[in-house]
Each structure stands twice: as structure tokens, then as C-alpha cells.
Amino acid sequence: MITIKDIFALLLVLIVLAGISLLFIDKRPFTDEGSYCTIAQALSSKLTLYRDIYNEKAPIPYFIAIPFVKGNEPIKSLRIFVLLLNLFSVLFFYLLLRMNGLSTMQTFSVALTYVLTAPLFQSFNYVSETVALPMMLFILYQLYKNEDSRMNILAGFFTFLLIFIKQQFTIFSLCMILSAIASPAIRRRFFKGVIASLVSVFLLLIISRS
């Protein structure tokens, strides 16, 4: 159960994460961020992915990046977007730890260790993984609750979408689909989300080629 102590602990962790991110936002070299910005800018100029401009990675992160790369500082804008995704990740991460029986102090310690390490050395440089992480944690959170909830539609939507964010997430998605099939409380709404995701991805790729 979430208490007042949890709220203060979570706020402190989120403040530390935001502080570190903003402190280094203009002081870090970029890796695949440049690729995402370049390709997203090309897509916004009506070029077609995999035809006019080719990349071996899954398509969704490029389309997600489009609104954030239209200004004069696309890398900085993308990094701010990444920060928001990391904040959501830490939120779901904290909730999952508490649901699995860790105390407030234990959860706080683990979450604080994460924000002091992973965002600096990993998440800042891997756009696909950063986009996917809050989705994956949300899916796990919903399946763990095992309740008949409308949020299961969103969990199903994200589960299928992950395949088009990074190909390596296919195994995770299949495992989540099998888990949903096994749960009568989840599967009905979950697969509505899967179908909606399939239709959305199909329409996005069709529209981008027109």
C-alpha cells in the first residue's frame, strides 16, 4: 500500500533524476540520438522510411521523435523527451517494487541507485530502450494486478507496439501475450488493445508512404 512516506520518497527520486538529466543535458556526446534526429527530420520532410531513407531499426521511435526535432536544438528537445520517459519509468518501477513486498526504504534505495546510474550511462544513449521501458513496466504492472480493467486495453496496445519499437522486444511481447491468454480477467480487454495497436501501426506506415 502506498503511504505518505512513499510519496515523499518517490518525489525525491524524481527530483534527483530530473536534476541529473538537466545538469548534463548540454554536456554529453550523443550516439544514436543523432541518427534518430536525422531520420525523424527526413520523415517530417515527406521522405519515406525504408524507401527514400533506410535504417535497419524498427520504425516507431522515428515517428515518435518527429515532434521533438523540428526546432533549432533537436538533440536537446529529444533529451527532454527522454527525461519525461525516464520519469514515467521510475514511477512504474517504484510501484512494482512496492507491490512485490519491498519496504519504503528498500524501494527508495533501489530506485535512487537506478537514477544515479542507468540514465547517465545507458538510457540517455539508447532511444528505443528509453521509449520502451515505461511501456514494459506498465505492462508488467497491469498483468501483475490481474484485474479486469480498461487499462488492460492500453497494456495490450503497448505489448504489440513494442515489436515495432525494437525487434528484440518480440520475445517479451510474446511472453506477455501468453500471460494475458492465461488470465480470464485480462485477456478480453488486452486483445482489444493488441488489435487497436495492429491497426494503428498499419495505418501509420500506410500514411507515411502516401
Task: Offer a quick outline of the entry.
With 210 residues, the chain is mainly α. 73% of the residues lie in helices and 0% in strands.
Q: What is the 3D shape?
A: flat
Distance between the termini: 50 Å
- Tally the helices: 9
> β content, as a range?
under 5%
**From N to C, what is the helix and strand string?**
HHHHHHHHH
Mean pLDDT, all residues: 85
How many E-type strands? 0
Helix content: over 70%
In this structure, how is the largest beta sheet organized? none
Task: Write down the Rg.
Answer: 18 Å
- Which structural class matches the secondary elements? mainly alpha
* Uncertain regions spanning at least 5 consecutive residues: none
From the structure above, extract its key features.
210 residues, mainly alpha
